[in-house]
Amino acid sequence: MQTTRVFLGSSEELREDRLALSDFFNRLNNAYVPHGRCFQLVIWEHESIAIAAQEAGKQAEYDELVRSCDVSLFLFHRRCGGYTLEEVETALDESKRTGGVRPLIFTWIRKLLPGERTMPELERFRARIDAGELKLPYREYDDVRSVELALLQEFAPFGATIAPRRVGDFVYVDDEAVIDFG
After folding, report:
1. Kind of pairing, strands 139-141 and 170-173?
2. Is the Cα torsion angle 62, 66, 72, 74 positive or negative in sign?
3. Is the overall model pTM greater than 0.85, yes or no?
4. What is the biggest distance separating any 2 CA atoms in the chain, rounded to whole angstroms?
């Protein structure tokens, strides 16, 4: 079984998106595990209990998880917490250390709804990206299903080579409905 480890970092405000992506990875694995591929999602909700038992600081353990993954996904909306920023910088440092081999880094920023405001720390983070200080292109999204669809394409180098097909409101990989647009 070939396993691709995928770290997902975001602040608590995107809990529903993280849970939706966790479900997506379960469905993706339903399609790929029979073909010898597994996509292991690493998110803090899954790791918190084990890491809390460690004597070292929690964030140092999360940073080590980032370093151990093949892919790092980061989601932002209105804020950019210090821990998530540290995880981004850890992923960038690890990518630089490995000559860009791993982790591959994907970043999405959820579009604001009417009346929502971006917090200053996220504005500073985006300014660093836009100025080229952080080599971290990002995409905007308004529905987590668009992130899921993009991941199907981005994961081809990791063995996700079964062509997705859309049938009505569903996107299938093999015989597994992995995205529901209904």
Report:
1. unpaired
2. positive
3. yes
4. 51
Calculate the CA 121 to chain-centre distance: 20
Q: 96 vs 89, 105, 119, 177, CA distance in Å?
A: 10, 11, 29, 36
- Main-chain dihedrals φ then ψ at residue 153, nearest 5 degrees: -80, -40
Domains within the chain, CATH numbers bracketed: 2-180 (3.40.50.10140)
pLDDT at site 46: 54
| Cα atoms in the 13 Å half-sphere on the side-chain side of 151 | 28
Amino acid identity at 54:
Q
* Long-range CB pairs of 169-178, under 8 A, 24+ apart, other chains included: 173/28, 173/31, 173/32, 174/31, 174/32, 174/34, 174/35, 175/31, 176/27, 176/28, 176/30, 176/31, 177/27, 178/24, 178/27, 178/28, 178/31, 178/148, 178/152
Q: What are 120-153's pLDDT values in tens digits? A: 999 999 999 999 998 898 999 999 999 999 999 9
- Nearest alpha-carbon partner for 45 in 21, 69, 81: 21
Strands of the sheet containing 2-9, edge to edge, are 37-43, 2-9, 71-76, 104-110, 139-141
DSSP summary character for residue 13: G
Tokens coding 110: 């959820």
For 113, residues 6+ apart whose C-beta sits below 8 A from its C-beta are none
